[in-house]
C-alpha cells in the first residue's frame, strides 16, 4: 500500500521537489498550495512518470479554518497521512521597524501558526497507529538571530525548537519529527524576500539536493538536518562561541 505524504507549499521550490522525491519512492501525495495551475502541472508530471496518485488541494492556508477543513476532508475520505511535510512559508528582507506589520503578521501566521496547527491535527493519527513522520522545513536562519530578516529568523527558530520538542515527546513511539535547516536555496524564496543579489545567495544550493537530504533525514528520524557540512560546523560549533555583536554584524552584512 502506497504511503501518503501531505506537503504544504508544494507548488514550487523545495516542496515541489519533495513531492517528486516521495513519488520516486512509490508514495501517494496530497499537495497543497494557493496556485492551482502549478499543482495540476505537478500532478500531471508525477502521475505520468510514476504509478502513484496525487491529490490537489488549492487553498490559502492563511484563510480562517483552512487547516481544520483540510484535515476533516482527508479524515472523512479515510486517507492515512503517513508523512506530514510542513514546507509552506516565506520571508522578507527589510528593517524590522520599517517592514509592513501586516506582512510580518502573515509571516508569523504561515511560518508558525499554520505549521503548528497542521502538526497538531495530524500527529494524533500517527501516535494512535504508532507510525508516521513529520518533516518541518525550517532554515539555518532558525539557529541564529537575523538582522534585516528579524521576524523570519525568529519564526524559523520556533520551528526548530517545536520540532525537537515534539520529537522528544514521541521518542518512545515509531513516530518521528525532523527539522530541515537548509542554508540559501535557489528557489522563488530569494526573489520574494529580496535576497537574490546578496552574498547569502551567491552559492545557493539546488532545491532538489535539499529535498533529497531532507527526505532522507525524515526517513531516518533525524532531529535536525543541515544540508551542508560546512554550515553545520559554522552554526553548531563556531557560532555559539562567537561574540554576539560580531555574529549579528556578520549576518547583517551577508544580507545587505
What does this entry look like structurally?
The strands form two sheets. The chain has a seven-stranded parallel beta sheet with strand order 3-2-1-4-5-6-9, with helices on both faces. It is globular and about 50 Å long. With 256 residues, the chain is α/β, with parallel strands linked by helices. The chain has helices at 13-24, 36-49, 66-76, 101-129, 150-169, 188-192, 207-220, 229-238, 244-255, and strands at residues 4-8, 29-33, 54-58, 81-86, 132-137, 175-181, 185-186, 205-206, 224-226. The model has no long low-confidence stretch (mean pLDDT 93). It is built from nine helices and nine strands. Helices cover 50% and strands 16% of the residues. The protein has one domain: NAD(P)-binding Rossmann-like Domain (Rossmann fold, 3-Layer(aba) Sandwich), CATH 3.40.50.
